[in-house]
Design goal:
Helices cover 29% and strands 21% of the residues. The protein is an alpha/beta fold. It folds into 2 domains: 125 residues, Urease, subunit C, domain 1, CATH 2.30.40.10; 256 residues, Metal-dependent hydrolases (TIM Barrel, Alpha-Beta Barrel), CATH 3.20.20.140. Strand 14, helix 7 and strand 15 form a beta-alpha-beta unit. The chain starts with a strand and ends with a helix.
């Protein structure tokens, strides 16, 4: 059994919206899983890391990425950019539909086949060490309840966005949301104007009629403020703020106010909509968090939960939350070298991406030092030698 101990933690963000800050300074990992969180933990047979008084938090999840299965796609290189995401601590990748593939199918048999093969590929493939939750079937007319049951059986957690295929209204898409809830497959819905040729615009009334589980890029400006309020108050869906073309500050702030009024921050998730013609965002989830804290007054611990544990809860992922029995996908970080701020919380409030010193995936160090894709931290976590641990 392999053991890893992280001690001397200055601040511990759990990613759990119900208890976002934990009163703990150490964490024990066994065989890649968090087994104990507490004060002054010791383990003489563990590989030990001194957090140097810095912040420990769960790795982040990008709730909205259009992955592909080729090295070439019409808009972007399909795989290599995920290396940079993982190296900044964004190690969970939720596919919102594998749309950027030349000649992708649009018939029921074809979209199901694409979902199955993509899911199977990313079960084994971890670009840059990231965990990609792929196989998001594009909703098209002709899919059946049996198709959703089959997808659930192979581990597909979500559909692609309503609006990417031709199932775009309550009559054609509504039954799919019911099948998804029956078999544990989350349904996503595009909002506002189209970003991709061949997709459909989705207005408030259409979305309310479909009743999806996740409403994508709500604060992009395509849905008016009164429409966002209706979506929050009339549906129990998760509300996603996305970095595509950067979130609209006016609507982003309005959505945060609406969520606060309704005590609904557990439904806030964060993504990038990579690539969607706008490029890639290796710090995308971090940047949305800094905008939410710096411009909208969101508490840092809530922003961390929105970028990690909320999305994990949405899709039934036992990672990206610091909780016993969860995968040890963790970030050690601090204020970046040279910054005026001294803590991660102050950085987020000031609109600054923290400096990461180590990223762990399944309890193993994925990147550290100059391999990390952020500014260097003021204080870096260090691995302790066995002699120092014993003493």
């Amino acid at each position: 059994m392999s053991k890893t101990l992280i001690n001397n933690i200055g601040c511990l963000y759990s990613g759990d919206i119900a208890q976002p800050v934990l009163n703990a300074d150490s964490l024990l990992i066994e065989d890649g899983v968090i087994t104990e969180i507490g004060q002054g933990l010791t383990a003489t047979d563990a590989e030990t890391y001194d957090a140097s008084g810095t912040t420990l938090m769960p790795c982040l999840i990008d709730s909205h990425v259009h992955v592909a299965i080729s090295e070439w796609a019409p808009r972007q290189s399909a795989m290599k950019w995920l290396n940079a995401y993982a190296a900044s601590g964004i190690t969970g990748i939720i596919s919102a539909g594998e749309t950027h593939i030349p000649g992708r199918p649009s018939d029921p048999q074809g979209v199901k086949a694409l979902a199955v093969v993509t899911r199977k590929i990313f079960e084994k493939l971890r670009p840059g060490g990231a965990k990609v939750y792929a196989g998001a079937i594009i909703p098209v007319v002709g899919l059946t309840e049996e198709d959703f049951e089959d997808l659930a059986d192979i581990g597909v957690r979500q559909t692609g966005e309503f609006g990417l295929g031709n199932a775009v209204d309550p009559e054609t898409a509504g039954p799919m949301t019911e099948w998804g809830r029956k078999y544990g497959v989350r349904t996503m819905c595009h909002t506002g104007a189209t970003f991709l040729a061949g997709s459909a615009g989705m207005n408030v009334d259409r979305i309310l009629g479909i009743k999806p589980d996740v409403i994508c890029h709500v604060a992009g400006g395509g849905i008016p403020v009164d429409g966002m309020r209706r979506l929050v108050e009339e549906l129990p869906a998760y509300m996603e703020i996305c970095a595509v073309n950067r979130p609209n500050p006016q609507f982003m702030g309005a959505l945060i106010d609406i969520l606060r009024e309704n005590n609904a921050f557990s439904r806030l998730i964060l993504g990038t909509d990579t690539p969607s013609g706008y490029g890639v965002f290796p710090h995308g989830v971090w940047e949305v968090m800094t905008l939410l804290c710096g411009m909208c007054g969101l508490e840092p611990e809530i922003a961390v939960a929105a970028g990690s544990g909320n999305t994990a809860a949405c899709y039934g992922i036992k990672a990206n939350m610091i909780r016993e029995s969860y995968a040890a996908d963790l970030i050690l970080c601090d204020a970046p070298l040279g910054a005026q701020q001294d803590t991660v919380a102050d950085c987020l409030r000031a609109g600054t991406v923290p400096g990461v010193s180590m990223v762990f995936v399944d309890g193993n160090v994925l990147v550290s030092g100059d391999k990390v894709n952020t500014a260097p931290p003021k204080r870096a976590a260090v691995k302790q030698c066995p002699e120092k641990v014993r003493s």
